[in-house]
Amino acid sequence: MIDVAALNSGAKHFYRLILSKHPEWQAAVSLYHDLWPEHTHRPRGTLWLELPVQNSDKTLTAYIQETEALVEIEKKEQLFLWKPEECIDACQAIMNCVERGVQTGKIRD
Question: Which alpha helices (H) appear in 22-56, and where do they start and end?
Fold first, then answer.
């Protein structure tokens, strides 16, 4: 279980979205710095997500920060940037990308 208080606001909102839409993904979520404490280039409170792509040997990874997220499948990336007041819409767009990626192996249309 993630310490929600340790997450920054963008990551916190996305984590709550995961719990409401895909509670089965909870085990795939970590705090980035718990996994890689030596990586000081990412802000504290960054959320890390790693999920298998259905019917494939690929893995989807994502990190979610305060106002930035990156979703990746095998070197194909989708970057998200938003203003703090756009957090809810941005997190929904990230969730749509992650869901599409897990189902199809593609993160872009």
Answer: 32-35
